[in-house]
Description:
Elements: E1 7-11, E2 17-23, H1 24-30, E3 35-42, E4 48-53, E5 64-65, E6 67-71, H2 78-90, E7 97-104, E8 111-119, E9 131-137, H3 139-148, H4 153-169
Parallel strand pairs: 3-8
Antiparallel strand pairs: 1-2, 3-6, 4-5, 4-9, 7-8
Amino acid sequence: xxxxxxxxxxxxxxxxxxxxxxxxxxxxxxxxxxxxxxxxxxxxxxxxxxxxxxxxxxxxxxxxxxxxxxxxxxxxxxxxxxxxxxxxxxxxxxxxxxxxxxxxxxxxxxxxxxxxxxxxxxxxxxxxxxxxxxxxxxxxxxxxxxxxxxxxxxxxxxxxxxxxxxxxxx
Length: 170
């Protein structure tokens, strides 16, 4: 887990870069729009990776997540950030596919959320500084878990939009 503040680029309400670089902590504190990249990870059988955040994390300690990801650093695309985060958090080297981005107003502060999907190996190596537990759930199991477990606000928003996106494509 890095204690160094990540540098992000401020964006406008159309996801256009403003050319202003700030620390992510400040962007969150001030409510400035910036970019975040997350990935829904599926295995070959279609199960979805769910994890519980470490209790030592500053944002949403101990809550569950349906997505893996984090801030888009200055100069990165959504896809590059998503791939970097998967390598850092799960030890997985894959190229996630960007499905869409949306202005997400849930969570600590508003941000643009680039939602990706990737098929990853069953045997991920989770970073213990960030992930306390992880497991694979079927969609019905995940739907139940979302009602019973405590998840991050981004997880609820991202997963409902992900399901709607998949339903519209089928």
